[in-house]
Amino acid sequence: MADLYLPGGRLADRIELTGLTATGYHGVFDEERRDGQEFTVDVILHTSTSRAGASDELAQTINYADAADHVIEIVTGEPVDLIETLAERIADRMLGTGALAVDVTVHKPSAPIPHAFTDVTVTIRRLGELLRPPKPAADVVVGIGSNLDDPVTQVEVGAGKLARVLEYEQMSRTRVTAAEVAPGMPSQPNYVNAVMVGKTTLSPLALLAELQRIEDEQGRIREEVWGPRTLDLDLISYKVADREVLSDNPDLTLPHPRAHMRSFVMEPWAEVDPWGKLRGKRIR
């Protein structure tokens, strides 16, 4: 299959497991269920390895030994008629490892075909929740802030662009709040903050790419964490059918890990969505 590109054009990293082989009892014929045959599986896990590469910690990546165990468990487990079904079950399990997307190829070299052949394969690609467009449209909360280059105008212009990305959007009033400054860092100008709620048919990562595009158009420079900025658009919460999407992916943490501690997020959110919830709790 072709390489998988993340929203924004960045090539996803890959962890590949090839040639995983075990005896399974899958097939539509009685002898296949009775005698079994060898199946071989290739798996590509599309992910981000940056966090693991920086920390050198196994906990920060997908454990390929565990992934291999899952594949073998499914191949040797409950029989199914079709290798298409087998591939779907493997893909579902692999997405549970935290992969952004997976490619699964199931080989059935001993398939009951009355002709000379080398192999029969089924290959599928399945997207994880961070890359899959939501059905129905997702409810999202976006924090808006600026403390550089006329913050009031930056927030107004940024909100206008964001309103063209979201559907059925509603924005809070703006308010001025003191900047959060990391220890040892110089003071910063106050922020102008607001919150917009709305709906989207974009996946979480696709929406993040749109937020970053708008920030870039407004002159956002990402030189330091906690630094001053012309425009900051934070994806606070992303819910599908009232179920909050959770993510600790290096590119996107959901819900926003510090939102509940920030009055400049919670108060304007409550203003436009008084029945809103964060991690299952009412926001006011």
UniProtKB/TrEMBL annotation:
Q: What is its EC number?
A: 4.1.2.25, 2.7.6.3
Annotated keywords: ATP-binding, Folate biosynthesis, Kinase, Lyase, Nucleotide-binding, Transferase
TM region positions: none
Q: In which pathway does it act?
A: Cofactor biosynthesis; tetrahydrofolate biosynthesis; 2-amino-4-hydroxy-6-hydroxymethyl-7,8-dihydropteridine diphosphate from 7,8-dihydroneopterin triphosphate: step 3/4; Cofactor biosynthesis; tetrahydrofolate biosynthesis; 2-amino-4-hydroxy-6-hydroxymethyl-7,8-dihydropteridine diphosphate from 7,8-dihydroneopterin triphosphate: step 4/4
Query: Which residues does the UniProt record annotate as the domain Dihydroneopterin aldolase/epimerase?
Result: 15-126
InterPro entries in alphabetical order: Dihydroneopterin_aldolase, FolB_dom, GTP-CH-I_C/QueF, Hppk, Hppk_sf
A GO MF label: 2-amino-4-hydroxy-6-hydroxymethyldihydropteridine diphosphokinase activity
Highest taxon listed in the record's lineage: Bacteria
Keyword field contains Lipid metabolism: no
Is the keyword Lyase in the record? yes
SMART domains per the record? Answer: FolB (SM00905)
**CDD domains noted in UniProt:** DHNA_DHNTPE, HPPK
Q: Name the protein family.
A: In the N-terminal section; belongs to the DHNA family.
- Which NCBIfam families does its entry note? folB (TIGR00525), folB_dom (TIGR00526), folK (TIGR01498)
What role does it play? Catalyzes the conversion of 7,8-dihydroneopterin to 6-hydroxymethyl-7,8-dihydropterin.
Please state what the protein is called.
Bifunctional folate synthesis protein
Origin organism of this chain?
Answer: Flaviflexus equikiangi
